[in-house]
User: What shape does this take?
Amino acid sequence: MEQGKGLQDMGKMPSMGRGHVGGARRFSSSAKPQNAKGTLKRILRIYLKWGRAIFAAVVLTALASGITVLLPYFTGRAFDAFQARTGTVQRDLLGTALFIMGSLYAANWLITTANGLCMLKVTQKLVFALRSEYFSKLQKLPLTFYDTRSHGDTMSRLTNDIDNISSTIAQATTQLISGVLTLTGSLVVMISLNLPLTGVVLLCVPLVAGLTKLIAGRSRSYFLRQQQSLGTLNGLIEENIRGLKMVKAFGRQEDVLEEFSVLNGQLFENSRKAQTWSGFLMPLMNVINNLIFTLVAIAGGIGTVSYGLSIGTVISFLTYSKHFAQPLNSVAGMFNTIQAALAGAERVFEILDEREETPDPPDAAVLEHPAGEVAFCNVDFSYEQGRKVLEDVSFQVHAGEVVALVGETGAGKTTLVNLLTRFYDPDRGRILIDGVDTVTITRRSLRDCFSVVLQDTCLFTGTIMDNIRYSRPQAGDEEVIKAARMACAHEFITRLPKGYQTEVSGSTDTLSQGQRQLLAIARAVLCQAPILILDEATSSVDTRTEKSIQRALVTLMEGHTSFLIAHRLSTIRDADKIMVIGDGRIQETGTHEELMRKKGVYYRMVAGQMGQEV
Assistant: This one.
């Protein structure tokens, strides 16, 4: 239905400064510290939806970790087969140790491969679920969200931030489980082999913990700022591409380049600081590993010479010292991507936690066969608290009447339409359709009452036929063509290379603004809803086409309650009722002749439009 695109287009009404929120956000450099632990817990709760697959992955990871723990032990046993004092080799012991080690390596490869495939499948399911939930959430958010958010930043969260999650979580989850199991198993085996050497290896734990805490505290905020800067930069790029004609028309290329340079510089600085601080971790971890390895070698050498400690045990401990620190090293090595993923997840969850538009009440009624009678009863409304756009507005429109809404730009004409279609709810008062309060009607059945033609036409990727049929998907080809004829669009459509099968999209300019508007009118004709809303529906067409459209609109408005928002006298003078809106109120109501005789606000507007002095 045509009103579906109102979520974007209808949000363009004057709003007493609310449109500047996105601009202020763009240049904000502050970044609140986020709850990384809470975000990680939330991701893990989502993972539990696939409990069986996770359980299988945990089992496979446990097996792989067990193999990792056993390998150093059998490596030590293989070295013990060589008797340095006697110069002999225990071939049976050596052969058995080598066979077991070979088997363990082969089993580890198979298990690790199967585990990786399992975790990747679960992770992609998680990303699929997040993307679906995010996009579904966008459909439920109120217009105020889109009025105060950069579209590019919102898109960046859906693409870049979720991609960061998908590229990191599988690896991080597997390594976290494997690390815990490997550390536990290694610790048990080391204690059973030699307690003093175990204490030497455990010296790495406080060193690694302190280092990680120091680096994490510094880098986390920079990673969050990096993601925010990337979203802001995407917003600027999206705006520039969409408005490139205006940029060129007003010669603002240099200004845009300067703004891009500033934002790109902010992204560079935040990324550099984030990567620098996280980059400190791995080299310092290697220093700790080498230190522990050296201490184990020295202590093992002393034990071998002075206390009869076997060389095989020392070799096992040297390997365990590496294995014990390896899980910590792995996490440290991917620390930057983990931070980026958590920052991205926080930004995604921020949108998922946004307040949705007020849901339909459980007993909401379905409005069947509406006649189109409309009433506003003492309605107040404001976009920002304390700054009313409409105040105590009351009027009644009978079914089939044509009502013109006139007034200065920003007077509240489109706001009335937004309230009628329930894109916003009033702060006070009631809005009735056929005597039924709109808040007691399901949104779906309410919006089925309307057919909307806006000043800025939104086309969707597809054919001309698909775009006209958008308002009533079940309509046949003949009905679509009939609607296009009534809207005076058939003639230009047939001149296109593929006629009604010509491909168009909202992001291209293959059609003129006037042609796009004709397609929007054809949609409205096809919709056949009882209430018709025309918001400057002929503003982008030439005078000759306007007259043809007006004849079509006369036919279209027959039997329909119609609201016309227009400035041209030719569009509104034949309306059954004209309402002049100003200062948040309805200042005058009447027919064209009645209002002209009053010589009030409407008279002065008409006289000014015709170039006459009042």
